[in-house]
């Protein structure tokens, strides 16, 4: 998983990548609320004019990718699709 996080961080315009779980909480985001939102989804992309947030559910954790608006979403999808 660490290799995936590092690959995502190396994509131009990706600002940050967080691995959210019950053990590793984010100070501004509640893991339980994101987990409930992701119940029937593997991936959720929120795209705005100032940036993007992509959530990817993987086993008992959720990857949160924060980026600028002009990020290459195809590159992110390619890396996320490689996770088994």
Mean pLDDT across the residues is: 90
What is the number of helices?
3
Approximately how much helix is present in the residues? Answer: 25-40%
Beta-strand level of the residues, as a percent range? 25-35%
- Largest sheet data: 4 strands, antiparallel
Identify low-pLDDT runs: none
Cα separation of the termini: 10 Å
What is the spatial order of strands in the main beta sheet? 1-4-3-2
Strand segment count: 4
What form results from the Cα inertia axes? Answer: globular
Order of helices and strands: HEHEEEH
* Derived structural class: alpha+beta
Gyration radius, to the nearest Å? 12 Å
Features of the shown structure:
84 residues; alpha+beta; four-stranded antiparallel beta sheet; 33% strand
Please describe what this structure looks like.
With 84 residues, the protein is α+β, with helices and mostly antiparallel strands. Helix content is 29%, strand content 33%. The protein has a four-stranded antiparallel β-sheet with strand order 1-4-3-2, sandwiched between helices. The protein is globular, with a radius of gyration of 12 Å.
